[in-house]
């Protein structure tokens, strides 16, 4: 049980460690103030839909598969941050990261 909670804590670190740096990063890419706000909000907005969608999928295919797919997807989306060169790319990566983000981690609680 300790291992599961440890994985949950480590998994959430990717989300909360980005919050203080995402604004300066998006501004360094040339984003306007409005676009910076949209980039920051994109994660939360898409995460709502990701949570709903993953909940439906858990009922159909089981929590273990959704957890594995979600963890792999989040890993790939985190890797994409290294290749972002424009504010629009950052917006897309943030949206995709939010879609797969916390929804997969919450499935750990089902085990």
UniProtKB/TrEMBL annotation:
Keyword GTP-binding set for record: no
Residues in Major facilitator superfamily (MFS) profile domain copies: 1-111
Stretch forming the signal peptide: none
Location(s) in or outside the cell: Cell membrane
PROSITE patterns: MFS (PS50850)
Membrane-spanning intervals of the chain: 66-84
Chief place where the protein resides: membrane
Gene Ontology CC: plasma membrane
Membrane association type: Multi-pass membrane protein
Keyword vocabulary terms for this entry: Membrane, Transmembrane, Transmembrane helix, Transport
One GO molecular-function entry: transmembrane transporter activity
Protein name: Putative 3-hydroxyphenylpropionic transporter MhpT
